[in-house]
């Protein structure tokens, strides 16, 4: 059975790119463009991995990660944070919120897929 990955990204082009790359690798993908819908969609989809943009309109990816890690159904799902903010201390703050992986944009496909595979290998079944 294909691993399920939810992509939370408000930028249409980035969301499509991430989803197309993941689908080409055989993953089942659930794209989410609105962060306000992310946790409800995650509860319904129950992904093996969540890829989370940090700068979202209306709610931050940090809040969503904290919300997922506080949710009994979602807390064990690994989160890969992807952000254009790569300043000093940003990775620490993102990891403190509960992210299991971190990539700075622009993201290259090789490191992106390596991070996805690494997190899925360590994810609960």
Largest sheet: 5 strands, parallel
Using the coordinates above, name the CATH class. Alpha Beta
Rg is 13 Å
Quick one: CATH superfamily?
Answer: Response regulator
The strand order across the widest sheet is 2-1-3-4-5
Ends distance: 11 Å
**Number of separate structural domains:** 1
Low-pLDDT sequence parts: none
Q: What does the average pLDDT come to?
A: 94
Shape: globular
Output the helix-strand order: EHEHEHEHEH
* Coarse structural class: alpha/beta
**How many strand units?**
5
CATH level-3 fold name: Rossmann fold
Count of alpha and pi helical runs: 5
Q: Helicity level, as a percent range?
A: 40-55%
What is the annotated CATH architecture? 3-Layer(aba) Sandwich
User: What percent of residues are in strands?
Assistant: 15-25%
Description:
Keywords: Phosphoprotein. With about 120 residues, the protein is α/β, with parallel strands linked by helices. It is about 45% helix and about 20% strand. Strands 2-1-3-4-5 form a five-stranded parallel sheet, with helices on both faces. The protein is globular and about 40 Å long. The mean pLDDT is about 95.
Layout of strands and helices, then pairs:
Blueprint (H helix, E strand, L loop, with lengths): L3 E5 L3 H13 L3 E5 L2 H11 L3 E5 L7 H10 L8 E5 L6 H8 L3 E4 L4 H13 L4
Keywords:
single chain; 125 residues; alpha/beta; Rossmann fold; five-stranded parallel sheet; 5 helices; 44% helix; globular; CheY-like_superfamily; Bact_response_regulator
